[in-house]
């Protein structure tokens, strides 16, 4: 039987400890109470055994005091996923690719109830990382290899040897400068699962991509975060990475558009409101302009389609039109040309132009209208006959085409951008597509993963 | 229900048992390790100063696991190369469970007797074992050093030195530990748990963290 819990003598409240470095005497603060395994003296860069009350020196390393700028100073507190964490440690880790070192930074975060958590930063790209409490299932039978975790599949991005090159503050494991681990990153943006192997033991961690702006907000930092450079391995595509959804939406809109068009087609009046037959004698000099009879546009505001048909034969006629509202005097000016040429050459017969020309004048309100017409052509080419017809409320296939284009262009552009983004991402991978010309191109560090945990030997 | 009570055979202080099945306890005042016999309490040892430890859990911390309320009534403290960790003895309505807290990583396990277990020498990192149709992979082999006990335990546990633990994980968040403290290894099966899921009450306070 459990009896009620009225605690015995309280174990006391853990306090932040202030100690002195045995190497140089500088003050050492233990922010993670007794959870730190290693603490580093900021002043003389002695790495100290934090579990030893005398803080025995386990290693010393050389570094300029300000060698690495901490974007988030030690001791800063911020809120991550609703929990307050304090920055207690900082390290730089380095990989070498073709002899060139590439480095990134890891911040150790601590909460006395929730434990440790990590932030990593490379070129302005941040990851919020924690240790996994379940093993990912590895599948080596595919290339690149994958791991499955909580139903999600992650693809191997790259494997590197990551060394510790600078440390400061507290670490929940035995950190040493110069030690290296084999790190493999498996990605499923915005997440990355990393395995870190030291000796036989493997520690798994999961990072989630975070924007610098969110980090600045979480920790109340001043100024602006450094600009993110390039595309990072698990950076989510700023455009929907899932272009399938985009194209499904496109098909949906297309169907809606077709339905709308069919609707317009069947409900449009397509009503002829004017017809006139004229001839233009090109031998007559002087003003050829005239006005037509008045015609009425009834019903609602709609488009007016004006068609000019002419018997031009290796000739042209140019018409200056004005559609004038008799009641208001409002005029719509437009110019049209009808030309038709044909002939015969070494390639056979050819034609150019057409006997008809149509133009749609959008949004013409109802009222009484007439046309002012002024024909032009070359002098002395005989008489040109032409007719003018006007129809109101005509469905315009070109509007449909424009709407289609308006849908297609952004979808195509986003798809192109997205493919381009994925191309840039994978160009940095050990598994870059052969076409990238950078087949062995891991020229940047992995997402860290920091790893330790109960029993990881150092 | 009356709590079983007795007096410390060393200093005479009153000893109150929170759980009627406890076999061992530690006197809060003189830190004598006391074992229950049929008639009284016998002092078997003495707890030296415990190492500094900042587990947020303490004797009397309550919580809920799998909809069952528990209370922490004792612990064993071990030291290893990453500091110290605690095995908190939890009592639920029908028995004992263990809450391991290593640097605020929490695992709840229950003793699982009667399974076939490898010897300490046989286990290697990466090796797989199947218990109760769950496949476990050896993740770490820890050489630990016994550092002390506090409160009530369901067995005698005091005269220990170096102890080997083999920790195993599954791909479903399940966790297993083989404890080689005694001649016969003991298997514990359970799972990793999130701090928030245990709905703790009566935790320790930390200066500067309210």
Could you explain how this protein is built, in words?
The complex is a heterodimer of chains A (458) and B (210). Chain A has helices at residues 212-218, 243-267, 397-427, and strands at 17-20, 27-30, 38-40, 46-49, 57-60, 77-80, 83-97, 100-111, 115-122, 125-131, 137-139, 146-149, 152-171, 180-188, 191-198, 201-210, 271-281, 290-291, 295-297, 302-310, 315-325, 331-345, 348-353, 356-364, 367-376, 383-392. In chain A, a hairpin with a 2-residue loop joins strand 9 (115-122) and strand 10 (125-131). By secondary structure, chain A is mainly β. Chain A has an eight-stranded antiparallel β-barrel with strand order 7-8-9-10-16-15-14-13. In chain A, strands 18, 19, 21, 22, 23 and 25 form a six-stranded antiparallel sheet that branches. Chain A has a four-stranded antiparallel sheet with strand order 17-26-20-24, with no helix packed on it. With 210 residues, chain B is mainly beta. Chain B has two domains: 5-46, no CATH class; 62-195, no CATH class. Chain B has no helices and 15 strands. In chain B, the strands form three sheets. In chain B, strands 7-8-9-10-15-14-13-12 form an eight-stranded antiparallel barrel. A three-stranded antiparallel sheet of chain B has the order 3-4-5, with no helix packed on it. In chain B, strands 1-2 form a two-stranded antiparallel ribbon. Chain B starts with a strand and ends in a 17-residue tail after the last strand. The chains are: A mainly beta (458), B mainly beta (210). Chains A and B meet through loops of A and strand 7, strand 8, strand 12 and strand 13 of B.
């Amino acid at each position: 039987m459990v009896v009620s819990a009225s605690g015995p003598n309280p174990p006391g409240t853990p306090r932040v400890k202030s100690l002195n470095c045995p190497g140089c005497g500088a003050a050492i603060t233990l922010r993670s109470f007794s959870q730190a395994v290693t603490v580093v003296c900021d002043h003389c860069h002695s790495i100290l055994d934090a579990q030893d009350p005398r803080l025995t020196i386990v290693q010393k390393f050389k570094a300029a005091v300000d060698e690495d700028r901490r974007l988030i100073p030690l001791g800063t507190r911020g809120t991550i996923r609703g929990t307050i964490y304090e920055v207690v440690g900082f390290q730089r880790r380095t990989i070498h690719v073709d002899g060139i070192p590439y480095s990134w930074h890891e911040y150790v975060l601590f909460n006395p109830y929730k434990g440790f958590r990590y932030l990593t930063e490379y070129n302005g790209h941040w990851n919020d990382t924690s240790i996994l409490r379940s093993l990912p299932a590895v599948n080596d039978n595919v290339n690149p290899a994958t791991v499955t975790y909580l139903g999600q599949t992650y693809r191997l991005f790259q494997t590197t040897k990551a060394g510790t090159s600078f440390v400061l503050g507290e670490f929940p494991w035995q950190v040493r400068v110069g030690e290296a681990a084999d790190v493999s990153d498996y990605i499923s943006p915005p997440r990355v699962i990393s395995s870190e192997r030291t000796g036989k033991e493997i520690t798994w961690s999961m990072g989630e991509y975070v924007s610098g702006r969110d980090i600045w907000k979480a920790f109340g930092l001043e100024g602006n975060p450094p600009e993110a450079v390039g595309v990072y391995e698990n950076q989510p595509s700023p455009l929907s990475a899932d272009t399938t959804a985009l194209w499904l939406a496109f098909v949906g809109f297309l169907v809606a558009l077709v339905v709308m068009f069919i609707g317009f087609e069947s409900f449009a009046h397509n009503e002829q409101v004017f017809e006139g037959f004229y001839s233009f004698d090109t031998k007559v000099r002087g003003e050829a302009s005239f006005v037509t009879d008045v015609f009425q546009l009834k019903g609602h505001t709609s488009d007016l389609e004006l068609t000019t048909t002419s018997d031009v034969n290796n000739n042209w006629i140019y018409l200056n039109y004005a559609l004038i509202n008799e009641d208001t005097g409002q005029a719509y000016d437009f110019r049209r040309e009808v030309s038709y040429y044909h002939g015969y050459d070494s390639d056979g017969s050819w034609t150019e132009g057409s006997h008809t020309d149509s133009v749609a004048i959008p949004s013409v309100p109802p009222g009484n209208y007439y046309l002012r017409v002024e024909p032009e052509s070359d002098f002395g080419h005989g008489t040109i006959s032409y007719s003018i017809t006007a129809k109101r409320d005509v469905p315009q296939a070109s509007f449909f085409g424009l709407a289609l284009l308006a849908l297609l262009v952004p979808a195509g552009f986003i798809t192109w951008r997205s493919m381009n983004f994925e191309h840039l991402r994978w160009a940095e991978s050990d598994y870059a597509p052969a076409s990238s010309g950078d087949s062995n191109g891991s020229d940047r560090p992995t997402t860290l993963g920091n790893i330790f945990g109960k029993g990881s030997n150092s | 229900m009356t709590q079983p009570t007795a007096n410390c055979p060393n200093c005479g202080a009153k000893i109150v048992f929170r759980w009627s099945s406890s076999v061992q306890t530690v006197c809060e005042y003189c830190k004598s390790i006391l074992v229950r016999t049929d008639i009284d309490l016998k002092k078997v040892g003495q707890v030296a100063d415990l190492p500094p430890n900042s587990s947020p859990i303490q004797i009397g911390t309550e919580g809920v696991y799998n909809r069952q309320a528990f209370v922490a009534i004792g612990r064993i403290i071990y030291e290893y190369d990453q500091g110290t960790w605690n095995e908190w003895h939890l009592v639920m309505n029908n028995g004992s469970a263990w809450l391991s807290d290593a640097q605020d990583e929490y695992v709840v396990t229950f003793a699982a007797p009667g399974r076939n277990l490898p010897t300490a020498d046989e286990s290697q990192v990466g090796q797989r074992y199947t218990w109760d149709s769950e496949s476990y992979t050896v993740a770490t082999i820890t050489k630990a050093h016994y550092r002390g006990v506090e409160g009530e335990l369901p067995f005698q546990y005091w005269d220990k030195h170096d102890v080997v633990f083999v920790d195993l994980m599954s791909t479903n968040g399940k966790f297993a530990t083989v404890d080689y403290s005694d001649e016969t290894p003991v298997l514990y099966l359970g799972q990793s748990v999130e701090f928030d899921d245990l709905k703790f009450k009566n935790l320790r306070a930390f200066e500067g963290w309210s």
